[in-house]
């Protein structure tokens, strides 16, 4: 697979019976999906073989356009790439199964600085969070809320991860899209109990131990 496709379809397995309902057409053992794009006279063709290998191309007029695959992109190529990658991710989520192990993370938050609960309400259960550690779609994030809550407040699922834009400093930052899965009440998972089950710190975003993850999940 090419670089873009290889990145999107990393650690997944094809659900072949999901391709036809999605809109793919079987053409001699290769499934093909074609759709118009929103920009100018452009369209997209995506081929998937029975082994799950994905190949895609953008057609502009009557010719293939490859500008979106370059290292440095202009405004038009960036827009084409964004729409193409969004389509690939939708196909991945609906026609493939994840085969990578799920990782669990703890994300500290301070309600005096930002009200996470209101954020989830504002964005219908979703929240973008800039993090300095790259997660993967399917990973689980436990959000710890500081004083006065002082415990795990939310369990979230990572939906998407992208490099953050300007405004987050010079350090590498990843914009992590979180989907709210469960809300906990104060006292359900207090700090004093968390430290008894493998939690070392609540000072930064980090991967937690299986012991800690299992303890929190048992409380769900």
What attributes does this structure have?
220 residues, alpha+beta, ph1033 like fold, 2 domains, 5-stranded antiparallel sheet, 23% helix, elongated
Compile the SSE list and pairings.
Elements: H1 3-8, E1 12-14, H2 19-22, E2 25-27, E3 30-36, E4 42-49, E5 54-60, E6 63-65, H3 75-95, E7 96-98, E8 104-109, H4 116-122, E9 126-131, E10 140-145, E11 151-163, E12 174-183, H5 191-194, E13 206-207, H6 210-218
Parallel strand pairs: 8-10
Antiparallel strand pairs: 1-7, 2-3, 3-4, 4-5, 5-6, 8-13, 9-12, 10-11, 11-12
Main-sheet strand order equals 9-12-11-10-8-13
| Annotated CATH architecture of the largest domain | Roll
- Structural class from helices and strands? alpha+beta
Q: How many beta-strand segments?
A: 13
Poorly predicted segments = none
β content, as a range? 35-45%
The domain count comes to 2
Largest sheet: 6 strands, mixed
Provide a descriptive summary of the structure in words.
With 220 residues, the chain is α+β, with helices and mostly antiparallel strands. The protein is 23% helix and 35% strand. The chain folds into two domains: 3-98, no CATH class; 104-218, ph1033 like domains (ph1033 like fold), CATH 3.10.590. It has six helices and 13 strands. The strands form three sheets. Strands 9-12-11-10-8-13 form a six-stranded mixed β-sheet, covered by helices on one side. The chain has a five-stranded antiparallel β-sheet with strand order 2-3-4-5-6, with no helix packed on it. Strands 1-7 form a two-stranded antiparallel ribbon. β4 (42-49) and β5 form a beta hairpin. The chain is elongated, with a radius of gyration of 21 Å. The two termini are 39 Å apart.
């Amino acid at each position: 697979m090419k670089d873009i496709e290889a990145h999107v379809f990393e650690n997944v397995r094809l659900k072949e019976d999901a391709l036809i309902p999605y809109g793919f057409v079987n053409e001699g053992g290769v499934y093909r999906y074609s759709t118009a794009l929103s920009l100018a006279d452009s369209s997209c063709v995506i081929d998937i073989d029975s082994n799950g290998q994905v190949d895609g191309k953008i057609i502009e007029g009557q010719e293939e356009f490859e500008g979106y695959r370059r290292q440095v992109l202009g405004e038009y190529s960036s827009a084409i790439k964004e729409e193409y990658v969004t389509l690939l991710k939708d196909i991945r989520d609906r026609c493939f199964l994840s085969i990578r192990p799920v990782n669990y993370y703890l994300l500290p938050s301070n309600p005096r600085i930002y009200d996470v609960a209101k954020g989830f309400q504002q964005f219908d259960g979703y929240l973008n969070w800039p993090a300095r550690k790259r997660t993967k779609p399917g990973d689980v994030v436990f959000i710890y809320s500081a004083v006065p809550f002082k415990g795990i407040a939310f369990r979230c699922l990572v939906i998407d991860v992208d490099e953050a834009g300007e405004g987050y400093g010079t350090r590498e930052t990843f914009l992590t899209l979180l989907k709210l899965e469960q809300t906990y009440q104060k006292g359900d998972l207090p700090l004093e109990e968390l430290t008894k089950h493998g939690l070392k710190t609540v000072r930064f975003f980090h991967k937690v131990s299986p012991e800690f993850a299992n303890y929190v999940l048992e409380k769900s």
